[in-house]
Amino acid sequence: MSSNPNKNILIVCQHFWPESxxxxxxxxxxxxxxxxxxxxxxxxxxxxxKFFEGYSIFKNRNQQKDNINIKRAFEIPRGNxxxxxxxxxxxxxxxxxxxxxxxxxxxxYDKIFLYQLSxxxxxxxxxxxxxxKKVETTMYILDLWPENLFSVLKVKNKIIRKLAAKMSxxxxxxxDKIIVLSERMKQHVSEIPGIDSxxxxxxxxxxxxxxxxxxxxxxxxxxxxxxxxxVYAGNISPAQDFKTVxxxxxxxxxxxxxxxxxxxxxxxxxxxxxxxxxxxxxxGDCFYFEGQKPIKDIPKYTEIADLLIGxxxxxxxxxxxxPAKVMSYIASGRPMVLAMDGEVQTLIxxxxxxxxxxxxxxxxxxxxxxxxxxxMSKLERSKMGARASDYHLKNFERDIVLTKMHNFIFDLN
Length: 413
Description:
Elements: E1 7-12, H1 23-32, E2 35-41, E3 62-65, E4 68-72, H2 83-97, H3 101-104, E5 111-116, H4 124-133, E6 137-141, H5 147-152, H6 158-174, E7 177-180, H7 183-190, E8 200-202, H8 218-223, E9 228-233, H9 242-254, E10 260-265, H10 271-280, E11 287-291, H11 298-303, E12 307-311, H12 316-319, H13 324-332, E13 336-339, H14 343-352, E14 355-358, H15 363-374, H16 378-396, H17 398-409
Parallel strand pairs: 1-2, 1-5, 2-4, 5-6, 6-7, 7-8, 9-10, 9-12, 10-11, 12-13, 13-14
Antiparallel strand pairs: 3-4
Helix pairs in contact: 9-15, 13-16
């Protein structure tokens, strides 16, 4: 593997290990490329809203993991994931991260990498260090603001929306380079006044190598060996549109399909609401909530899946991306049924042909597509999953994508 002798990189992102975000694997890849990696992040509390065991304001604020130096800035945890607590969480980390700038200014960095989830403000310390030290910054935009904010919070006030857009655009203009997830997102960002499209590159999200594996788990097979297993793995949030899932589940039941099991692996701000909806609609006998699982356990669940499921709310922003969850699903080599708009429809329905993607927020279409896979033979489903796996290994495999990212950051293209 090619190397970067003595190259130092600072990663700034509110979320990092032991939280399960793809920045963990990206940081590992930089280490594999012989970079010295420092990370400025927050105190882990996502998605449950409480500090992870072993962490607090006073515990494990400085750590080292696999030759990665981790410095944790203070943040107020998300708590019950109410809008107020999320807002407090959003502003606490950017403010607290500023107090780490003096120490970080004493270090020499070749590049600064800004992994931008929500909120966009989480990158503030990295931008300022880059400006002061004249170190090039690369921002990887996963959640495009303010559009992502408005997809969760229904802000109608025109003045507030305009201020949010102006604030978000400031961050994007200050980055020296930008990585986006699709051509449509590149077009959107390049339309921001003051941003040259030449500094933007497009890279799909990739997933960790472990998603390519199948792990047989005897206990899961004993629990779920007599039905049609639909597995959802990921964050349970408003953007995931579980209203459509519930409506499709009801229709399947009303249409006399009784062997479907909905296996939900994950946690998030909408989990309590989802559990209530399951009980309200008398679906408790076919929904199984497995809770948050370590990333290493996810292949155990995809291995028992006859079908992988995913839905997104209607959103112009979300149409412009291939969600990270879908990339993991493709790698796992299982058929999928999705209710999503935009580029993902072309990819799954036409390019790979590894499932069926209908329009967002359309439970009737979702139910119909589930029936298509339900009526297939095991051999037909296996062939569909194999097409996904083959395409992933040729186009989306981790080392292929992250090498392109590494080369873009370090000007090796």
